[in-house]
Amino acid sequence: MKNTISPINRRSFGALAAAVLAAPMLGAQPRLEKSKLSIAVGGKASFYYLPLTISEQLGYFKAEGLDIEISDFAGGARALQSLVGGSADIVSGAYEHTINMQSKNQFIRSLVLQGRAPQIAIGVSTKTMPNYKTVADLRGKKIGVTAPGSSTNMVANLVLSRAGVKASEVSFVGVGTSAGALAAMRSGQIDAMSNIDPVMTMLEQKGDVKIISDTRTLKGTIDVFGGLMPAACLYTHADFVQKNPNTCQALANAIVHGLKWLQTAGPSDIIKTVPESYLLGDRALYLASFNKVREALSLDGVMPEDGGRTALKALASFDPTVKADKIDLARTFTNDFARRAKDRFKA
């Protein structure tokens, strides 16, 4: 039988066949330079790092082809040490560490933002300081922080400095972010505490502390910092970002996917998704804490335009080693990965 496909049709048929064969490839993920990653975090059970937990628990990292191992430390400063020491590839930690490290001539970079407010509150013990009146009363006192050098320590330093109290005039004590922090405050081992939720809401609602500074809401953050203060992010060495762009994109995709889920998640969704141990034995208070900090979570993973400037101004105001005119903020973060993830997930 004579072949009736014309030369033009034959070419069209060939093109169509090629397109069909290529179709699966168009949807394929780019090859990851590094698929097995270690992520360090300081206080994983806190709301500060909730997007990380959500993305892990719902399988969003796996969906991007990533095999991640998360190591939890007592505070962000310890997580940073693991990155510097080479035992972690990525840190889920406070953005301001990227500025602090640049002041020491070490360049690390934020890939995707998890929080747009620090969610840190400072509370004074109603047990050891019942007659507290002003921040100056904290001179000579013991102040609990997640870990010395962490963002909770930074916020405490900022609040103290504005009241004319030097960091050297108080004693900072590392208490972690969970049951140990609650015990330290309730037993009278510390006189005040700078920490994150759910710990601070639990202490507040039981009357153990009087809150004197609060960045768990956007309004409170602007009151303390004068603008939106970027908080938790995924950060890593600048050369890792340069060498592993597909891996960094996969990380940003997973976090933004989690942020998107959080926008519509109800209280029961959160309870079902986080490990039971995160609730610290009080489901109702955990949910009350979540409602308080919900607006502090990033919506899309993108660093706000003035975020870096706000953080730099805050750090330079009390830390003489951070010289504002010597810091290149453009080298502390990139929005490239987050913007692509935002477009993909319509966050």
Helix content: 40-55%
Average pLDDT number: 92
CATH C-level label of the largest domain: Alpha Beta
Oligomeric status of the shown chains? single chain
Task: Give the N-terminus to C-terminus distance in angstroms.
Answer: 57 Å
**Main beta sheet: strand number and arrangement?**
5 strands, mixed
In total, the number of domains comes to 2
Question: Helical stretch count?
Answer: 15
Strand-residue proportion: 15-25%
Q: Return the CATH topology of the largest domain.
A: D-Maltodextrin-Binding Protein, domain 2
Q: Helix/strand-derived class?
A: alpha/beta
The arrangement of helices and strands along the chain is: HEHHEHEHEEEHEHEHEHEHHHHHH
Cα-based radius of gyration, to the nearest Å:
23 Å
Order of strands across the biggest sheet? 2-1-3-10-4
| CATH architecture heading of the largest domain | 3-Layer(aba) Sandwich
The CATH superfamily of the largest domain appears as: Periplasmic binding protein-like II
The total beta strand count reads: 10
Shape: globular
Residue stretches low in confidence (pLDDT < 50, at least 5 long) are 1-26
Helices and strands in order, then pairings?
Blueprint: H1 7-27, E1 36-42, H2 50-57, H3 60-63, E2 67-73, H4 76-85, E3 90-94, H5 96-103, E4 108-113, E5 120-125, E6 142-145, H6 151-162, E7 171-174, H7 179-186, E8 192-196, H8 199-205, E9 209-214, H9 218-225, E10 232-237, H10 238-243, H11 245-264, H12 267-273, H13 283-293, H14 307-318, H15 336-345
